Amino acid sequence: MLDSNFFQVTVARKTSLSAGMLRLTFVGDELERFRTTGMPDEYLRLFFPDEETGELVLPMIDADGRWSYREGKPPVRCSTYTVRRFDRSNREIDIDFVVHQGGVASDWAQQVGEGEPMVINNPRGLYTPPHDLPWQVVIADATGIPAATRLLEQKPRHLICRVVIEVACEADIQPLPEADNIDVTWIVGSGNGHYRSRLGDIFPALPLPAGPGHIWAAGEQETIRQIRKFAKNTLKLPPDRHKLVAYWIDENTPRPAPQQLDAALRESLAAQWGPRGQSN
Questions:
Q1: How far apart are CA 94 and CA 24, in angstroms?
Q2: Is 136 buried (19+), middle (13-18) or exposed (0-12) by CB count in 10 A?
Q3: What pLDDT is recorded for position 65?
Q4: Which of 12, 47, 158, 258 could form a disulfide with 119 if both were Cys (CB 3.0 to 4.6 A apart)?
Q5: How far apart are CA 280 and CA 210, in angstroms?
Q6: What is the number of H-type helices and E-type strands within the chain?
Q7: Start-to-end Cα distance in the chain
Q8: Domain locations in the chain?
Q9: Of 46-60, 199-213, 254-268, the least confident
Q10: Fold classification of 135-273 (topology level)
């Protein structure tokens, strides 16, 4: 049996969610002791065997959550993913994977079959907004869709959510939770490792509702840095009013930037969300 921080699971099902995302459902009796945080952005790690030796190297984790490694062992091979769904009664976990080439976990998820083993750990979450929120803005590229979807599923009924999701193509759009106070704008054809993201340009143009709210964003590191700079330096948001998380780093040669925000998109955002400082 594994250390209490880790869980042996197997692949039970594979589901296609869109052209660019698939879901693996994992099952395992050890998930009875899985310690979910309940946070919508909670994440765990998938641990992979050493490519050369086939040995599964797991870290030692102390009471404070710090990792250490046994002397002479290679660094652990792992990938971080959002917990899309946890079902304790059926001992199941859903994890959604962006389909792309060259990623350890994505490549594995695309070729893996039912019954294949995997080791995961207990999750952690970062989403701790104030309890008095009247509104929230949710911004993400494809990697942030699983967490963004959970945010919308778990939100208080009164909370106004204005959502901007960037995907590479129309085929990557997938259903999101619906409610009268959820507005969603899909940005198609930029970011996601194909072109430069437009999210960092769109965020300053968003007509935010009046009063204190919360900004949640997840995506590529440079894009999140751009959003954070505007949130802190221009909007002057205190730390508890935003959670901006870099999920990945684009190490490719920069591609041509997409066109600046055109008038049609600006008008669409203004019509859907109202002028800055107002709430529809």
A1: 6
A2: buried
A3: 77
A4: 47
A5: 10
A6: 5, 14
A7: 54
A8: 6-121, 135-273
A9: 254-268
A10: Rossmann fold (3.40.50)
Q: How far apart are CA 177 and CA 235, in angstroms?
A: 28
Equal CATH topology for 6-121 and 135-273: no
Q: What is the mean pLDDT of the chain?
A: 90
As given in the structure block, the two tokens for residue 277 are 């400082």
The length of the chain is: 280
Q: What is the mean pLDDT of residues 125-145?
A: 96
Q: Which superfamily does 6-121 belong to?
A: Translation factors (2.40.30.10)
Q: What are 204-214's pLDDT values in tens digits? A: 999 898 889 99
Radius of gyration of the chain (CA): 20
Angle at 244 between CA 241 and CA 246, to 5 degrees: 170
One-letter identity of residue 205: A
Q: Are 255 and 168 in contact (CB under 8 A)?
A: no
Q: Which two tokens stand for residue 244?
A: 């901006």
Q: Is the pLDDT of residue 263 over 60?
A: yes
Q: Is 243 exposed, middle or buried (0-12, 13-18, 19+ CB in 10 A)?
A: middle
Residue corresponding to tokens 């008008």: 267
Query: Global pTM?
Result: 0.90
Which position has the token pair 């300053």? 204
Comparison of pLDDT for 263 and 246, the residue scoring more: 246
What's the order of all strands across the beta sheet hosting 242-248?
182-188, 160-167, 135-140, 214-220, 242-248
Burial of 109 (0-12, 13-18, 19+ CB in 10 A): buried
Cα gap 256→58, rounded to integer Å:
41
Question: 21 is written with which tokens?
Answer: 């995302």
